[in-house]
Write a structure and sequence with these properties.
The chain has 341 residues and is an alpha/beta fold. The protein has twelve helices and 15 strands. The longest helix has 19 residues.
Length: 341
């Protein structure tokens, strides 16, 4: 009921970037959140803006204006806005988030937060200086399923974590062919840094401790960025982690995460969506009861209203950036183990 009441508080939102992922989020926002108002968007592509405008028309909502220049948007519309939702190629995330935060807006920022650890630390500093909210739009960390799983693991009721096995797969290579996602200067990486970022973040969220050593192998399969990847890691507690990403397979997009503990096994997905547990002495996984969620925007509004703690602050982005930097360093050395700082 607390989350539901949040829908009645008007929020003035600017969408920064109107590509396919932004349109995915907008379908949920326009369909379920009448008091989320979108006065303006920022999109340089006329085609992408037109596709976005059609969503508003279909939802019988007023079509927002388009200001393709973010600096002009903030100068002209900043007083009419509360939040910026940044959904642009990864290379632009840092500078666009800084501009929005310094203009007095709270920010929901698509994953991965930034390109590297230096940019992540910079965003932490800007958040501290401005006092504004920044939440990284990781579906997993924002989901009730992963928050519930993390709480169960922290409580000690399942015993110590012994190991973690996670896999995510998608026909990503075909799906992203010819797009910015396969341009390393814009994307910062391939499948493991794009869809696979959900896996890296969700596993790190579940274990709740530092990665101390990483070995990684990345395979571009002739593409400009990695298509497949395998990571083996050791946590500060000594627990072991295996991460597998396959970005070239049959048409599908799915995942499997298993956390092996002394007293139980948890099973979930990198985006949350479901959670099961196998207790010691039981023969079958059983579902864990989870409150329903409408997704990322609903959870962000709950964070912004103070109904739940922010599960994805910029510090989460820094943790993810350190892990990704170590993965790249190890892969460049043929899988040599490297420390994860």
């Amino acid at each position: 009921m607390a989350i539901e009441s949040n829908k009645n508080e008007q929020t003035r939102l600017a969408i920064i970037g109107c590509g396919s992922m932004a349109q995915h989020h907008l379908r949920s926002i326009l369909g379920e959140f009448d008091n989320t108002i979108v006065p303006v968007v920022c999109e340089p592509s006329a085609e992408a803006y037109q596709s976005t405008a059609e969503l508003f028309i279909q939802a019988e909502r007023e079509v927002p204006r388009n200001e393709p220049n973010l600096e002009e948007l903030l100068a002209s519309y900043g007083d009419m806005l509360d939040v910026a939702f940044i959904i642009t190629p990864h290379v632009y995330h840092h500078d666009q988030a800084v501009a929005c935060l310094e203009s007095g807006l709270d920010v929901l920022l698509e994953k991965p937060m930034v390109m590297n650890a230096a940019e992540a630390q910079s965003l932490i500093d800007v958040c501290d200086q401005t006092g504004r909210l920044l939440t990284v739009a990781f579906n997993g960390s924002l989901s009730p399923e992963i928050r519930t799983a993390a709480a169960m693991l922290r409580s000690g009721e399942l015993g110590s974590i012994l190991s973690v096995s996670a896999t995510v797969w998608q026909n990503w290579r075909d799906y992203t062919d010819g797009t910015w996602r396969q341009v390393p200067e814009l994307s910062g990486g391939g499948f493991l840094f794009d869809t696979g970022a959900h896996m890296l973040n969700t596993v790190a969220d579940l274990v709740g401790e530092e990665f101390v050593e990483v070995s990684a192998w990345l395979d571009k399969r002739g593409a400009p960025v990695e298509i497949n990847g395998v990571v083996l890691a050791r946590l500060a507690s000594g627990a072991l982690v295996s991460l597998h990403g396959s970005g070239e397979t049959v048409p599908s997009c799915a995942s499997d995460v298993r956390v092996f503990c002394e007293e139980a096994i948890l099973r979930t997905g990198v985006w949350g969506r479901w959670l099961e547990i196998l207790h010691r002495g039981s023969d079958e996984f059983e579902p864990v009861e989870i409150p329903p969620s409408s997704g990322v925007w609903e959870q962000f509004l709950a964070v912004r209203s103070g109904l739940v703690p922010n599960p994805c602050p910029p510090e989460i982005g820094l943790r993810m950036a350190h892990l990704w930097d170590s993965i790249k360093e190890s892969a460049a050395q043929g899988g040599k183990p490297v420390p994860c700082i």
